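Consider a typical record:
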Amino acid sequence: MASDKKRLQAPRGMRDVLPPDSHVVKRIRDICSNVARTFDYHEITTPLVEDVGVFSRTVGEESDLIQKEMYVFEDRGGELLALRPENTAGVGRAYIEHGMKSQPQPVRLWYFGSFFRYDRPQAGRYRQLTQFGIEAIGSNSPSLDAEAINLQSNLYEALGLRGLRLSINSIGTGHTRGRFIEAFRDYLQKYREELSPESQGRLVTNPLRILDSKSETDRAIVLNGPKILDYLDGDETKHFSSVLRDLDSLGIQYEIDSSIVRGLDYYTHTVWEFEPETGGGQSTIGGGGRYDGLLEQLGGDPTPGVGFATGIERIILNMDGQGLLEELTPKPDVFMIPVSEAGYEMLVGVTNKLRKLGVSVRSGELGRSVKALMRAANSSDATIAILAGDFEVKERTVTVKHLRESHGAIVDTQVVLSELAALIKETLLLNKTS
């Protein structure tokens, strides 16, 4: 009789990451780590849960993140906690809590991990998502904004991604935004009935967020409205101009887009986004900005900072579209083919020694035909197959076949096992560089 128990599945919008995707994520993490290291950024790991105040104080009470997306719960001790929806506020909290202002400034940090948002699942967007990000805290220099953008650009280049567009804007400081919001609200009042219901609500609570609306009607209305760049004061204009000058010096192409505001209240000055050139309003692959008031909102001293975050699922989606995932999926270097029981016993020892020498080996099953094992070896995409049967055992040799070429060799296992490993590694290197 069939069980009437409910079949358990992963929660909606969350997923199991299985091979080969798990290998891809690991390789992307390694690339992120390597690029961060070249800029002298160091890894930080914050808790998956934070006091809900870490986010409610900083990202804006009217933000979608607070109103709709954050997972909030009360633990057994009565504390109100949240699964972290982003990490800039968490890193800022850690900076304050651990007295990192005593370190040489700016403190350069990177992170890689899971985040949680109750959002509508779609391609490249999950309720449990993975992000890589950096935070540089302790300097208000515009060169640090350009450094963060440069690091992000270098990361996408290291991943092989092509055709990404950088859009950049400045939203100034609180005083500037106040003047702009007043003019922007007055302009939007004339079109109030034409705005989407969501933007009509934001017209009262936070008009700045209408700039980030995904409604085509809203975007068309905004297009002819006031531009925040026209409201920057002299210092804010100088800061933004310095960032653009550095990007020009770095050879990083960009478009100035006055509608870029990012989705969180803590941003100031420079804000930016990267998206595919063919993408739409939901295609942003990563973005960031400066947040000079964030740490003060968290209870710390006034401390400037800048950073970005990029979605790993969005990266994978774009890499897949550009045919880049295959090279990130690991393949065995060697496939072992036992032709006889004696050959199997010999290959067990050879396999173990090769693995200790750093060679990746997959072992074929004893009892299958040589033809079936050769098909399995080719399907595994290994570079080399090593065969051993009664003849090889008698001669103390193994037969080495190059699966991507038509030739092979007989190698003495007793005398030159290390040379066998060297031969395999040399073959692998040639295949990677050819």
In short: The chain has a mean pLDDT of 88. The chain has 15 helices and 16 strands. The chain has two domains: 21-172+232-321, 331-433. The first strand starts at residue 42 and ends at 43.
